[in-house]
Specification:
By secondary structure, the chain is an all-beta fold. It folds into two domains: 170 residues, Jelly Rolls (Sandwich), CATH 2.60.120.200; 308 residues, YVTN repeat-like/Quinoprotein amine dehydrogenase (Methylamine Dehydrogenase, Chain H), CATH 2.130.10.10. It is built from one helix and 40 strands. The strands form nine sheets. The chain has a six-stranded antiparallel β-sheet with strand order 1-40-3-36-37-38. It has a six-stranded antiparallel β-sheet with strand order 2-39-4-5-6-35, with no helix packed on it. The protein has a four-stranded antiparallel β-sheet with strand order 7-34-33-32, with no helix packed on it. A hairpin with a 4-residue loop joins strand 33 and strand 34. It starts with a strand and ends with a helix.
Length: 489
């Protein structure tokens, strides 16, 4: 078993660790990394990265981590999903994944129990917001309409089940004609399979739900067109106060729940009970739309100059640059080592390539004769980054390098995790069982050699918030049987 063992970090006490080593793998050669990782059930932060050898300047290397994404505008797109990817500075490749139903806006995307789900705004008098499940290609399966209103605006996985918040969306905010469907929203539902949804209560005095997220084992929600933050107690939604303005998004970071402000912008931190404290404002910005955790820092996307800001503590924010001449930053996600962001009015996707440097990749929505186009929603599924648009109501996906994901929630406690690169495939293993793989004849030519340090317990999202032990790096592709044997040790 020790043949080809390049490095071994026992961490016998299972401590939380973060180390840097100067180890180089063959840039085009096989390798396997195997480790034991423990995560808690109740979380007040993203779980972060397990290991990485990656240079963000050249986009060369590999990343291995557990993905949780709060505050991707109106949704919690991924929750406790294992990923493994390599890149050699490859050009991103885009794919049109079709239009779910009669969507005008893909309001939310979420990966749940091995599938990708999309929530929609559909505008006709006899149309409602739906949730759809992706079947591949450009095909979507209708999972039903939870309510009579025109939108399902938010999705989140909570206690192993998919929840949806519904809204009467006012399309005038996107310079579109008003929806003919005037039914109010404001309720939350739990998915029961097929086209069945179970009613889970309504936000008091609200006709909309804009965001759902999980913090410290409880589900939180905010309305779109009124003030307040609410927490679900299993029967009703309890008022948790307001920072004094409407909100757009919620995020979880470093032990706290954060909220993004509308009506003057700003970011606010939950102080318990019904109290909120200001984390400061961003000069000239009047609406904050989204959150992302990148390189251990909390970032936000803003209007009206499509800027991204990094939180520096207290009430201080650092400007991380504007995305060309766009006006608004919406969905943001870290995918295979890099940070991506969607914009308005041209519905473009940008990649963060350094201090204040944003590289334009693609315009996704080409609808003519409209004022605003949006890339509002994002999620990672099946090793690809997915983006939802307005007003075409289509979903697009992108691959950069090669990535595999375990699109099921990783349960709390200790698990043995292994990631393997071979000549023509990537594979992920959990507790000795292969849970994801991808074949690609071009893998051998992907040279991931770089000058970055080899990281254990850290990476492109954040330090790992859990415990590690028995981390092993091999300069060969272990067989399935050998990985199973490591998991039984």
């Amino acid at each position: 078993m020790d043949a080809g063992l390049l490095a071994h970090w026992p961490f016998e006490d299972g401590s939380s660790v973060k180390i840097e080593e100067r180890i180089r793998l063959g840039g085009t050669e096989d390798f396997t990394i195997a480790l034991w990782a423990k995560t808690d059930a109740i979380l007040d932060d993203v779980l972060g990265d397990l290991a990485a050898w990656y240079d963000p300047r050249t986009r060369q290397g590999f990343n291995l981590g557990i993905m949780t994404a709060h505050g991707v505008t109106s949704h919690q797109s991924n929750y406790r999903h294992l990923y493994f990817g390599i890149d050699a500075g490859c050009k991103p490749v885009w794919r049109d994944c079709g239009r779910p139903g009669r969507a005008v806006r893909v309001m939310a995307l979420a990966t749940y129990e091995g599938s990708l789900y999309a929530a929609t705004f559909e505008t006709g008098d006899d149309e409602r917001g739906h949730v759809y499940r992706y079947l591949g290609g450009q095909s979507w399966e209708d999972c039903g309409s939870p309510d009579a209103c025109n939108s399902v605006a938010s999705l989140a996985v909570y206690n192993g089940e998919l929840y949806a918040g519904v809204t009467r969306y006012r399309a005038e905010g996107s310079s579109l004609p008003p929806s003919e469907n005037k039914n109010p929203g404001g309720a939350i539902y739990r998915y029961a399979g097929g086209q069945e949804w179970v009613y889970c209560g309504r936000l008091p005095d609200a006709d909309s739900v804009i965001c759902l997220t999980v913090f410290r084992g409880q589900l939180y929600a905010i309305p779109w067109y009124s003030q307040g933050v609410f927490r679900y107690d299993g029967h009703a939604w309890r008022y948790c106060g307001t920072p004094g303005r409407r909100l757009m998004s919620l995020a979880v970071f470093a032990g706290d729940l954060y909220a993004a402000g509308n009506e003057g912008g700003g970011v606010f931190r939950y102080a318990g009970e019904r109290a909120w404290e200001s984390c400061g404002f961003q000069e000239g910005m009047t609406q904050i739309y989204s959150f992302v955790i990148h390189r251990g820092m909390l970032l936000i996307g803003a209007w009206p100059e499509a800027r991204v800001f990094e939180y520096a503590g207290g009430e201080r924010w650092i400007d991380r640059g504007r995305l060309d001449n766009e006006l608004e930053v919406m969905g943001m996600m870290v995918y295979n080592g890099k940070l991506y962001a969607g914009t308005l009015p041209l519905a473009e996707v940008y990649r963060y390539d350094g201090p204040k440097q944003w590289s334009r990749l693609q315009q996704l929505d080409m609808t003519p004769d409209v004022r605003y186009r949006r890339v509002w929603s994002m999620a990672v599924y099946g090793g690809r980054l997915y983006c939802g648009t307005l007003p075409s109501g289509r979903v697009f996906s992108m691959e950069a390098g090669k990535c595999v994901t375990h699109d099921h929630e990783l349960s709390p406690g200790w698990h043995h995790i292994a990631a393997r690169r071979s000549a023509t495939s990537l594979a992920l293993f959990v507790d000795g069982r292969m849970v994801a793989s991808a074949e690609d004849a071009g893998l051998r030519s992907m040279n991931i050699d770089n000058d970055a340090p080899f990281l254990i317990g850290s990476g492109p999202v954040d330090d790992f918030h859990g415990q590690l032990r028995d981390v092993r790096l091999y300069d060969r592709a272990l067989t399935n049987e050998q990985i199973k044997a490591l998991a039984s040790m």
